[in-house]
Amino acid sequence: MNKIKSIFLFLLCFSLFSAFAQEEKQAEKQGEVLDKIIGKVDNYFVLKSDLELQYQRYLASDPVNTPTRCQLLEGLIINKLLLAKSEIDSVTVEDKRIEQELNSRMEQMENQYGSSKAIVEAFGKSIATLKDDLRGSIKEQLVGRKMQDKITEAIKITPKEVKQFFNSIPTDSLPYLPSEVEVGQIVRLAQPNKEQKQELVTKLNDIKKRVEKGESFEELAKVFSEDLGSGKRGGDLGFAKRGQMVPPFEAAAVKLKPNQMSDVVESEFGFHLIQMLEQRGQEYHARHILLRPDYQKLDLTEPTRFLDSIRVLIQRDTLKFEKAAKEFSEDKATQDAGGMMIDPETRGLKMAFDSTMDPALYFSLDSMKVGTISVPQSYRTDDGRSAMRIIYFKAKHAPHFANLKDDYQKISSIALSRKRNTAIDEWFLKAKEDVFIFVDEEYKDCDILKAAPNQR
């Protein structure tokens, strides 16, 4: 039983809502109903459909390297063991964190499908129903992550251990890495013009008047708010600590008395009408109605002009790219790093220059020379906003067999992951004694949890 591989597979199980939704849709389309319980850890169940959907997803994406059903089932059992132990060890996740993750995934869905209406049409379910369907699985994922973090939080890796790990890899087994690139970007967001802003302000002021005449703020929020998360709850944002919300929102909110409404407030997320519900100490409880501009109709002239001028200054060496990114880029993910993009897996600057890269970025780099900066290009942010960006092609590294000098960050990341997996493996051997574990007879040849005394 390869625990390291099963844990790795378990980590991959945390996918975006779109993946879960597409799998569910595909299964329904095929008329598959697979609801047999094939695993149980205390009060947590693994269904055969869980296993089959994962297996089919891997098979579709990479038929050659698809893990076996036994390996996937082991990952699912470990997932449930983490959840069961989290109850015993009182590891919990706040409801607000669950809602934040849920809202984030719904926003990604909205960006993918174009609108909330398109999502409803695609799945034949209301947004509220889709969120209710997903809320439980998100809670399990977040609790599982928190439990895993608790187990591995003290695990570190030293340069000596990285070197030992690398030297343990047979020479003929060293991976051949594809071309890698180091890339930076400076992003400027499109802003609504005066007419577009005024249209949103007018709409919110009309809503405010309706509340003042006796209509329910809560019901109007459910109808009009474009905040998918709070809109379903009548705009309720729950209690927030000072400093948690964006400054324009908080500055307006904390001045309000209970049940009082703000004037229209503009923030980076759009335009808000805020109603205070309660304040206690350093916390406040508010609700809002959010309206956003139609990002498809925003004028990109100003961001283009601005980036053109920045590009000229950088090309003349009057301004360094890193300094310009820190001062002027509106992409928070790369701004602090001097505009440089970070590989999400290794957290390093080198990114594989292959089909795994965003196609728009790949084709831009393919026509550029190292050391150059692109002309302003249209760009869509992760949250769906229209923007322009300039791309800095800082470096390109040729394909090569992995080595410590050029690939230390990658090797270190793998070595640390292995060390953490070992820690979870050791934890698992102890933790399985504290819970009831059942694996269906159909999977007896998998040897999953073979040593568990209470398995049957």
Automatic annotation (TrEMBL):
Coiled-coil residues are none
What is the superkingdom listed in this entry's lineage? Bacteria
Which GO terms fall under molecular function for this chain's record? peptidyl-prolyl cis-trans isomerase activity
Residue ranges of every copy of the PpiC domain listed in the record: 178-278, 281-392
Entry's InterPro entries?
OMP_Chaperone_SurA, PPIase_dom_sf, PPIase_PpiC, PPIase_PpiC_CS, Trigger_fact/SurA_dom_sf
Q: Which Gene3D superfamilies match?
A: 3.10.50.40, Porin chaperone SurA, peptide-binding domain
| Signal sequence extent | 1-21
Keyword tags: Isomerase, Rotamase, Signal
Q: What is this protein called?
A: Peptidylprolyl isomerase
Recorded source organism is Sandaracinomonas limnophila
